[in-house]
């Protein structure tokens, strides 16, 4: 199979699997959005996914994303920034990205709000929470989330629409540990949505290739999958090609 048909068949299989998992959890499959993580993959692969009906794509770095997004301008792709966002890169987010999944400070929120105001374009924002308390991961700790939301509310940030939470599950953990992490994020969303009166605070971005089934069972509204759609990352293929036989 050529690359385009490969991507199309993988997407079809994933959509079927996501729908199956959602129904098994008593959920509507339409409530789970597939984010195709296209980092390290070329614009041509994204175009193949677009031809197969995929619309949401995730990128982790501004440097890689911008030329890819510009090359696919006008195709109907919706872009999600899913990596750690540095303050000096905030100015590049709009108008290209519709979503940021990794908001973790008031400083970044203020910068993004200024950019949103300049472009007169709203930005959907998810707050990243380090539920596992892994020092190698970004995100606010669970107990710090109410304080950040209170600070964001005081700032009155035009153009920033708080939509929910994001997390990365534990690495090499058991099913109960992974599900506990995702259930904890769902509880945090529900508690803080009610506490701060945030009607649009409904999203849960959680679950990747190895754990998305558990994430859907625990209420994920967005799952972030890359290799399962595009195959091995481009730099991995290049490394193998250049390795001595």
Question: What's a quick, concise take on this entry?
Answer:
The protein is 44% helix and 16% strand. By secondary structure, the protein is of the alpha/beta class. The chain has one domain (3-232): TIM Barrel.
Secondary structure layout:
Blueprint: H1 3-24, E1 33-37, H2 43-51, E2 56-59, H3 62-71, E3 78-81, E4 99-103, H4 106-119, E5 123-128, H5 145-155, E6 160-166, H6 175-196, E7 203-205, H7 212-217, E8 222-225, H8 227-230, H9 234-242
Parallel strand pairs: 1-2, 1-8, 2-3, 3-4, 4-5, 5-6, 6-7
Tell me what you see in this structure.
The chain is of the alpha/beta class. It has one domain: Alpha-Beta Barrel (TIM Barrel). The chain has helices spanning 3-24, 43-51, 62-71, 106-119, 145-155, 175-196, 212-217, 227-230, 234-242, and strands spanning 33-37, 56-59, 78-81, 99-103, 123-128, 160-166, 203-205, 222-225. An eight-stranded parallel β-sheet has the order 7-6-5-4-3-2-1-8. Helix 2 links the parallel strand 1 (33-37) and strand 2 (56-59). The chain is globular. The two termini are 25 Å apart.
């Amino acid at each position: 199979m050529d690359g385009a048909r490969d991507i199309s068949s993988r997407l079809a299989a994933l959509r079927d699997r996501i729908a199956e998992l959602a129904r098994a959890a008593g959920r509507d499959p339409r409530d789970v959005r597939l984010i195709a993580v296209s980092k390290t993959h070329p614009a041509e692969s994204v175009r193949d996914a677009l031809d197969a009906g995929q619309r949401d794509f995730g990128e982790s770095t501004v440097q890689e994303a911008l030329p890819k997004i510009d090359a696919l301008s006008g195709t109907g792709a919706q872009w999600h920034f899913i990596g750690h966002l540095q303050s000096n890169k905030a100015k590049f987010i709009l108008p290209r990205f519709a979503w940021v999944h990794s908001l973790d400070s008031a400083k970044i929120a203020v910068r993004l709000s200024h950019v949103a105001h300049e472009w007169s374009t709203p930005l959907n924002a998810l707050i990243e929470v380090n539920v596992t308390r892994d020092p190698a991961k970004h995100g606010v700790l669970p107990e710090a989330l109410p304080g950040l939301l209170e600070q964001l509310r005081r700032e009155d940030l035009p153009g920033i629409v708080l939509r929910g939470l994001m997390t990365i599950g534990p690495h090499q953990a058991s099913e109960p540990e992974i599900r506990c992490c995702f259930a904890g994020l769902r509880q945090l969303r529900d508690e803080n949505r009610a506490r701060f009166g945030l009607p649009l605070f409904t999203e849960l971005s959680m679950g990747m290739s190895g754990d998305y089934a558990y994430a859907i069972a625990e209420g994920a509204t967005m799952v972030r999958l890359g290799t399962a759609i595009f195959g091995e990352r481009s730099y991995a293929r290049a490394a193998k090609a250049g390795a001595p036989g």
